[in-house]
């Protein structure tokens, strides 16, 4: 619909130009991120004496640079997936609590309390993780190893506090607020008529939720979980302080193993040579591409259902 | 013959299941709040001891590896300057983009593309924005590590947040206001500047403050762009400049107890700044929200 002014004003052209330009600047920045990461990654990749995608070791500062993303990408994916498995059920519970269980007067205040989790800076979680959670997790980890050691994930001979599990737990805490916030908005938009119809037919509260709220909210929860996954993958400082920074592939999440692309960038930047910086930029490019894909997929799921569009903003 | 009453009581199995889920849901909320309380408690307990005038007014210059004392003045100054510069870059671009999306886009292809990529941009990892500024500004253009480079990285993280919140606020402005203005012969751009933006002003301010709160705690982009220094540097355009989150990271990585104490106090200062911004922003929305949501 055209809503143009009756009489063209001299200011209109420039103002329209400036606001359109600002939007285009945003697109240009996204493109530039990809372009300049590639530009600075290529020389380092050419100096690499091994295959970047499959090599496990990371020695880009050596005279004969050997580095690859293998172990780092594995650690990134494993820790993020673990975080997702831990965070999603709790987040859905929190969302249901605020949308359907908490007293109406308290609901928004309690929602704000959960949002505060997202306001705590990453480095503070890292500090908390290293000084409190790492020693604290030793007990539960030993317990898991003793009694559930037959599950490969919990197996292994050495059990430490600075493990994949502890890092994933911190990640789970950090992504919980975003998953809970989006799920909450979606649950609140579930059709009131259906809920009341279910209750009128004699359903209990849980049956009403299972029949009308959860089916309606499922796509929203899925995309919220994917946004959380993207967050977890890019999370840097907290896990950089916790991971023992090893370069191997191990599913033993209680053992002294673990690293991620982002953590490696934070830990390795200080002593990186020129090739080293290029190598870190190359790993960052991979991280950028992975998170881009995860985020775009999540946004497509949301965009398919118009009613979610506001909730995910 | 038994008389069938109208309403049967709910069977005990269904009742038990309903109770069980209720307990689980309450438990989930408790589980989410425990880490928050634990973090806040430990930060206050460990941080309050060093929160003194020396911490707020001194840098780390000439403080030996094992020395107590020293402070975060250089980091606080750095963070304030970097966040201010980042806002000066991100707010105009973000606000104008929101104006484009609401007032000029008219659902065309460009506006849908921009809208989609604004969403995607919120998911750009903070470390990647730091790497981008490192690659583009420092390595390709040959600029020095500086507070301004850090501000550039932070502004990339701020922009999508500003766009989204400003867009939502602009959409809340009633169409009748715009039409009344057009009917009086006011051109479109004057309508936007004099009618639409002032109406949405408090909401936009809230959004900007939330965006500032988000980036003020970011460490990873600073690590790659401002470098670490122990000295005061008031000039954000020249030479390494500290930031408060980076200060916490740096001190937490040092092996002595006195350094870890400083890290906790830095964390406490940082949380106080971020929480304060959040709280003020939420209070403004709560008081001024045009349609109070549940």
TrEMBL record, chain A:
Residue ranges annotated for the ABC transmembrane type-1 domain, each copy included: 73-298
Any GO BP: phosphate ion transport
Subcellular location as annotated: Cell membrane
InterPro entries (UniProt xref): MetI-like, MetI-like_sf, Phosphate_PstC, Phosphate_Transport_Permease
GO cellular component: plasma membrane
Domain of life of the native organism: Bacteria
Keyword annotations from UniProtKB, A to Z: Cell membrane, Membrane, Phosphate transport, Transmembrane, Transmembrane helix, Transport
Pfam families associated with the record: BPD_transp_1
Membrane topology term: Multi-pass membrane protein
One GO MF term attached to the UniProt entry: phosphate transmembrane transporter activity
Residues passing through the membrane, by range: 21-45, 65-98, 110-139, 159-183, 236-258, 278-302
Role, per record: Part of the binding-protein-dependent transport system for phosphate; probably responsible for the translocation of the substrate across the membrane.
Family from the record: Belongs to the binding-protein-dependent transport system permease family. CysTW subfamily.
PANTHER family noted in UniProt: PHOSPHATE TRANSPORT SYSTEM PERMEASE PROTEIN PST, PHOSPHATE TRANSPORT SYSTEM PERMEASE PROTEIN PSTC
Protein name from the UniProt record: Phosphate transport system permease protein
Organism annotation: Microbispora bryophytorum
UniProtKB/TrEMBL annotation, chain B:
SUPFAM superfamilies, sorted: MetI-like
Residue stretches spanning the membrane: 20-44, 83-102, 114-139, 145-163, 195-216, 263-284
Keyword Acetylation: no
Presence of the UniProt keyword rRNA processing in the record: no
Domain of life: Bacteria
Primary residence: membrane
Compartments (UniProt record): Cell membrane
CDD domains the UniProt entry points to: TM_PBP2
CC terms in the record's Gene Ontology section: plasma membrane
GO molecular-function terms, A-Z: phosphate transmembrane transporter activity
Keyword annotations: Cell membrane, Membrane, Phosphate transport, Transmembrane, Transmembrane helix, Transport
One biological process term in Gene Ontology: phosphate ion transmembrane transport
Residue intervals of the ABC transmembrane type-1 domain: 76-281
Topology within the bilayer: Multi-pass membrane protein
UniProt function note: Part of the binding-protein-dependent transport system for phosphate; probably responsible for the translocation of the substrate across the membrane.
NCBIfam families in the record: 3a0107s02c (TIGR00974)
Family: Belongs to the binding-protein-dependent transport system permease family. CysTW subfamily.
Protein name (record): Phosphate transport system permease protein PstA
Organism taxonomic ancestry: Bacteria, Bacillati, Actinomycetota, Actinomycetes, Streptosporangiales
